[in-house]
Please model this.
Amino acid sequence: MTDTAVREYLREHLRCRRSDEDARLERIHAAEAAGHRLIDGGQTGRTADDQSTWEITDWRTGERLASGIGDDTYDTEVARLDPAGKWLHIDAIDTDLTEADPVGIPASLANALQDWIGSASTSDEDIAGFVGWSVEEVARHREEA
Model:
């Protein structure tokens, strides 16, 4: 009975991931259609004299758009490079993820299973073999933009 509950939880978790990613892709396309440039980056570290370092990259291409030192220079550089206010940080697109209900298994086991599915070292083949789906179906449910 427990192995069935684990398999069903994993299937539902994968379905939630796919649904969440599809909704995220819709938000990305809508933002870009509205003329936004999606950016990534932010604080990257600290200098020897304890000032913050930062970087701004184009989310699609990875191109470095700006980098610098000091919190105040980040905002100044964004205002200079994006006077029309069309840059949108990719984090603004992301929202809370849908959680599958861990029916028949403890929440702590559900958390461990989420880690297992989310790990880059866990192959689609391993998951497919366990949940009873094709490798292609698992890969589609795990893919991200």
Observations:
- Residues 7 and 131 are 5 Å apart (CA to CA).
- The two ends are 36 Å apart (CA to CA).
